[in-house]
Amino acid sequence: MSKLRAFFKRHILLVGLIAVVVPLLSIIGLQYLSLRKLEKTSIVAGNVGMKNYLGGVSSEVKMFYKSSAEQALSVPAYSVEGDNLCDIKEHFPVCKVEGAKRLFIAAFAPDGEQQTLFFDTRDSSVRVEEVPAAEARAVQFATTPLRLMAKEGMTAEQPMVWMEDHDPENLILIKPINEDSKVVGATGMILDPVYFREVLLPAKIKESLAKYFPDGTDSNVIVTVYDEHDNPLLSSQEARGQNDEIKTNLSPYFYNYKVGIRSRHMTPEQWAHLNFNYCRR
After folding, report:
1. Alpha carbon of 51 to those of 92, 156, 204: distances in Å?
2. How many independent structural domains does the chain possess?
3. What is the spatial distance between Cα 98 and Cα 237, in angstroms, rounded to a whole number?
4. What residue numbers bound the domain in which 178 lies?
5. Position 277 pLDDT exceeds 70
């Protein structure tokens, strides 16, 4: 015991240094581990924010078309009864439909015959006598299953809007017209890709940026839209920035278009590394 006391007396500075350094190193080690964990969390949070943004844009586009179709395509069965298809001027409950280039109504006869009329989306009471052949074919393709259901007397309990994407340039939202749960006709709209590219998508991108990246943080985010060949169509900023962090197809409408998002100055990983290195100082 006396030897131990003598050792401490001779090396009191060394013992004191050890008593201070060991706890300090332990604290630094724990802080380092905490910062590494925080760095990984920051990276994940940045990527999640970008994914949430892209999901938000897709949801906004989907909601626009869903709402538009539900409002415009609520056509009653008497519109396709007998001569009513041709005699009635105002079949649709709304006079103007944005986002579509054509409206149509088809009446199915019991023998399988079909009569289809087209209408102007700027004034749904105006009949369009001549439509491009591609549009007519797309409508014919979309209505054929319903026409066969009508011919067979099949029931459709709950008429719902669905999309026919056989022709990507003429995407169709179509809804059966029922009478006593049986299909007697169909109504629908042909979506306008020009309106989608030039009006709807830019507006939803801008609105969602303000929502998901508030207080000016959207200035560090660049959103780019690509066509089916990955050619850029529009961008939220002119600056090129980093490579796209995430790129995804829009769904379910115009799914051949892609939207990518990236950082203008730093990626989430770079921001996390910068913050981590700063905190280590």
Report:
1. 38, 37, 15
2. 1
3. 26
4. 67-191
5. no
